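Think of the structure tokens as a kind of shorthand, similar to the way a musician reads notation: each symbol stands for something richer, in this case the local conformation of the backbone. In the example below we present two proteins back to back. Begin with the first one, reading the sequence and then the tokens, and try to describe in your own words what changes along the chain.
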Amino acid sequence: YGPGTGPFLHRWKTLRDALKGLRDSRPEYQGYSVNRLKYLRLLTEGQNWRALPPRIQKEAMGGAYESSGGKVGFYRRLSFDKPCPTVPTSPVQKSTCICHPTELRPLSVKEYARVQQFPDDWEFVGSTATRYKQIGNAVPVGLGFVIGKVLLRYLDNHEEI
């Protein structure tokens, strides 16, 4: 692919882009535990556990504090002006926290679905936790479309992979 062609033609989308125009007057979500809320209250948009006061980072992280890896998903508040990270199957765990940028709650089920590019009228069934899991296990709709197109080209012998 040359510059400005193929998969790099489009600029990435921000969380704000993904949620634009969404009507979710009574957002449905799983609540955070009291302990998680204690630390999330201290963070602002775009921050994670590393922005907590140094004296309480170890307390917040528990045993994970000493483990290796970036741990960017711990106590994470999203930013409206950056892309949303991969949505996990549960937004309320310490290591998979997907906290709304400005509200003290995880992304709602509808917001989760929007991030994964599902149409607003798509219906998920089961408990709130089950629906988060369905959406988190899904491939984003746009990615599924592109993969399908590539497979069709291959099957039709229009392009060798």
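Once you have a description of the first chain, move to the second and do the same.
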Amino acid sequence: MMIFTNEWDELFKKNTHISKWPWSDLVSYVNRYAKPTGSDYKVLELGCGSGANIPFFLSFENVKYYSVEGSQTMVRLLKKKFPSIKNNIILGDFTKELPFDLEFDLIFDRAAVSHNSTKSIISCLDIVNKKLKRDGKFVGIDWFSTEHSDFKYGDNIKDVFTKKDFKSGVFANVGCVHFSNLEHLKTLFKSFTFLALEHKLLKSEIPNNSQCLAFWNFVAKKSG
């Protein structure tokens, strides 16, 4: 089997960056803006990682969950952990292909797409647009903002919004990290309509280390 995210596969092998609980912002956004309706609601996660969000979606009787993940290690583990959906968890590169002959009601990502270059993200969103049903929604959680303290670190690769080779901090050894400002997000999602867009900034007061963690959360609807 091919590995599409070598850096993340190595991190997962070392049992790091392992999340066990569904991300609270994702749960909130889905319940507020994209709560599953109907008898056959199809959901696709881009980069499921350790599978933290899977139990949340399996708790809905009418949801069919799918995912494309780039780590061979995680795909193998998740197929064993969730045997009822083992055929729905695919090893692949979601910036090049979504290998399901389906249209989805909801496609979502929690800080996976943002570990790619601008060019790859544009490619991914073009594919997402084609795979969404009419009025289908894309939910993005924790896309990194240019207001993030670490944006000034790392080396630029290919474009001004994408950094790599961070020497320390949360982005060390994770490969590409893409940061967005508001205008850049609007450009990336020119084929979508934003239904909600929030800028989340977390500043450390104690200890006062001048660190700011900054992210974007949003819901975008397929236009047309």
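Compare your description with these statements about the second chain. Helices lie at 6-13, 24-33, 54-58, 72-81, 118-131, 182-188.
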